[in-house]
Design brief:
Layout lengths: L6 E3 L4 H9 L4 E4 L5 H6 L7 E4 L9 E3 L3 E5 L4 H6 L1 H6 L1 H7 L5 H6 L2 H6 L6 H8 L3 E6 L2 E6 H4 E3 L2 E2 L6 E8 L5 E8 L9 E10 L2 E10 L6 E2 L1 H7 L6 H7 L16 H19 L4
Parallel strand pairs: 1-3, 2-3
Antiparallel strand pairs: 4-5, 5-10, 6-7, 6-10, 8-9, 11-12, 12-13, 13-14
Bound molecules: flavin-adenine dinucleotide.
Length: about 280
């Protein structure tokens, strides 16, 4: 299908982009175009204007900032995956990004685009939620920080106001003793997650000292498996881990679609959480 008519704007700076967006509530940011352009072609989105931020260097790059890694919104998935700063400072992001789509899409699609798109089936929202990332939004009024727990409002609805652009995300570094894993169940090698689980586990003296678990595609937004996180604290690797992971789907309302019914998704969440936690904890 041919997209509905739209204006095309290529601002020379982030400030200029914010100005255009502030003046037109139907304008949309265009980053890598890997999600937005298919929606335009299907006429599921018909913005008045596309504000192409693709060449704004201000939004690109990965920076080690001591206690956290800052990933610029326009950094491509491929750059994120290959960044030594990401691999060292927030390895879970690199691990999960390798599961996003295929190499061609990873070369065009961006870290910030995946998060601003707020698709609960996307792999990265659950990862940033599990790591307690902090979103940095810019507008004519300046910068605003949004905790990951408040960023994902509903299906495809991020907590960005009109005139705001996502500049990047701060990912806190987790120190010694942490292990990480992303487990994804999908139809084919490069497809979207039917369910995904991001796990960060800290071990101390043979027990789990802390666990952070993010769930992909188990509701309208990415979710934390809070009951499992609490139940895992202080347990040794063994039967108690399985019992704790059996609570991973508690309180969730997973979607029903062509690929899976809610009950099957709940089953997958329990199984994948067990696998992800064991792998993150370094279990044999
Ligand atoms: C065939 C296919 C398979 C895919 N498989 C997967 C998969 O397995 N896992 C997965 O996670 N993703 C998958 N994707 C999505 C891919 O990761 C996209 O890169 C990503 O969803 C969007 O990034 P983008 O830079 O292309 O954003 P765009 O398509 O340009 O934009 C997406 C949305 O975010 C907004 N936006 C973008 N950047 C900003 C910003 N800086 N500030 C404010 N708003 C912004 C846009 O306005 C738009 O609403 C797939 C895509 C395709 C086409």
């Amino acid at each position: 299908m041919i997209p509905a008519q739209f204006e095309y704007v290529r601002p020379g700076s982030v400030a200029e982009a914010c100005e255009v967006l502030a003046g037109d509530e139907d304008a949309k940011v265009l980053a890598g175009g890997q999600s937005l352009l298919p929606l335009l072609r299907l006429r599921l989105a018909y913005p008045s204007a596309l504000v192409d931020v693709g060449r704004l260097e201000e939004l690109k790059g990965v920076h080690d900032r001591g206690d956290h890694v800052f990933i610029g919104a326009l950094t491509t998935h491929d750059e994120v995956m290959r960044s030594p700063v990401v691999t060292a400072g927030c390895p879970l992001v690199a691990l999960a990004t390798a599961h996003v789509a295929d190499p061609a899409i990873r070369h065009r699609g961006t870290f910030g685009g995946s998060l601003a798109h707020a698709d609960p089936a996307g792999d990265l929202p659950a990862v940033v939620l599990a790591l307690d990332g902090v979103f940095v939004a810019v507008s004519a009024q300046g910068e605003r920080e949004i905790p990951a727990s408040e960023f994902f409002v509903d299906y495809w609805e991020p907590a960005l106001a009109q005139g705001e652009i996502l500049a990047g995300v701060k990912i806190p570094k987790l120190g010694e003793g942490w292990g990480f894993h992303y487990e994804k169940f999908h139809r084919t090698a490069q497809a979207w997650a039917i369910v995904g689980v991001a796990a960060a586990v800290k071990r101390s003296n043979g027990s789990i000292a802390e666990a952070r678990i993010g769930l992909t595609n188990m509701g309208a937004t990415p979710l934390r498996a809070g009951a499992t996180e609490a139940a895992l604290t202080g347990v040794e690797l063994g039967d108690q881990v399985r019992q704790a992971c059996d609570e991973a789907a508690d309180g969730t309302s997973p979607p029903s679609d062509l690929h899976a019914q809610p009950d099957y998704r709940r089953h997958l969440a329990r199984v994948l959480t067990y696998r992800a936690v064991r792998a993150a904890a370094g279990a044999p």
